[in-house]
Amino acid sequence: MSMDGRTCVITGSARGIGRGIAEHLGEKGANVVINYRSSEGPALEAVDAIETAGGEAVTAQADVANRQEVEHMREVCHEAFGPADVLVNNAGITADEQFTEMTREEWDRVMDVNLGGMFNCTQEFFDDIWNAEEGRLINISSVVGKQGNFGQANYAAAKSGMFGFTRTIALELAKGGSTANCVAPGFTRTDMVESVPDQVLERIIAGIPLERLAEVEDIAAVVRFLASEESSYVTGEVIDVNGGMDL
Ligand code: NAI
């Protein structure tokens, strides 16, 4: 599954799942745009890792919730590599609170990044993906979007919203021959899960048939398939990568 010469923009890719996806695609020959929100150091490390593996990468600062900054990211991509073939909407945040305690600000913050960011990036890169040979939109949702999760009404609503968005964009891209799909990871070993208390984590793992958390490589491998030309007849789907959590 070579990604030779394909230009991939991955939001929130200085660490965690995004970085795993970026490195995986870069190692397969993709030109990668590493997006970061505020601190360039980790993004430069990701560029180094990709270049060491023989790929090409640049950094692009943008808060995905800020349209002007996303426009700048598109300009960086076009200058470095030309139009994007693949956009992975990966950047996401949580602001957990039991619903009765959840503030409107916590609700809005999660919507602004997880859904607003996806809106901004998809609209900025829509023409690129439409015009690409085998263009790809890949949205990183979550098992929480399917199952819900105590204390995550905002996050679950946002991640669930990604499903309807993806199916709709899949229809709107189809005439151009490009696809849109969602990946819904289960609990994955990253900084996002780092804050979950050990006891809760043990209970989560006990409920996973494969008896372990996902590693970023588990998610990246599926994204690579969806980003490749081999997935050209898969569109509007949600691919679960959760160790069998919903069996
Ligand atoms: P993480 O917190 O380790 O990484 C998220 C990245 O997104 C960070 O680099 C962060 O700086 C960036 N980011 C956050 N807000 C941003 C913004 N406004 N603009 C640009 N970048 C921004 O999280 P992780 O675990 O790597 O998650 C990646 C995606 O996968 C998220 O969408 C998350 O919701 C989803 N996910 C994670 C799971 C997990 O268990 N870790 C499970 C299911 C889904």
What's the topology here?
Layout: E1 7-10, H1 16-27, E2 31-36, H2 40-52, E3 56-61, H3 67-81, E4 86-89, H4 104-131, E5 136-140, H5 143-147, H6 153-174, E6 179-185, H7 191-194, H8 198-206, H9 216-227, E7 238-241
Parallel strand pairs: 1-2, 1-4, 2-3, 4-5, 5-6, 6-7
Helix pairs in contact: 1-2, 1-9, 3-4, 4-6
The chain binds 1,4-dihydronicotinamide adenine dinucleotide.
1,4-dihydronicotinamide adenine dinucleotide binds at residues 11-12, 14-18, 35, 37, 63-65, 90-93, 113, 117, 140, 142, 185, 187-188, 190-193.
CATH overall fold name: Rossmann fold
Count of runs of 4 or more consecutive helical residues? 9
Integer-rounded radius of gyration: 17 Å
* Overall geometry: globular
Poorly predicted runs are none
Provide the residue-averaged pLDDT: 96
Describe the strand arrangement of the main beta sheet, using strand numbers. 3-2-1-4-5-6-7
Distance linking N and C termini: 29 Å
Count of domain modules:
1
State the helicity in percent bands. 40-55%
CATH-derived architecture: 3-Layer(aba) Sandwich
- Major sheet details: 7 strands, parallel
Order of helical and strand elements? EHEHEHEHEHHEHHHE
Structural class: alpha/beta
CATH superfamily: NAD(P)-binding Rossmann-like Domain
Q: Kindly provide the name of the CATH class.
A: Alpha Beta
Small molecules in complex:
1,4-dihydronicotinamide adenine dinucleotide
* Beta-strand content bin: 5-15%
Q: Give me the count of strands.
A: 7
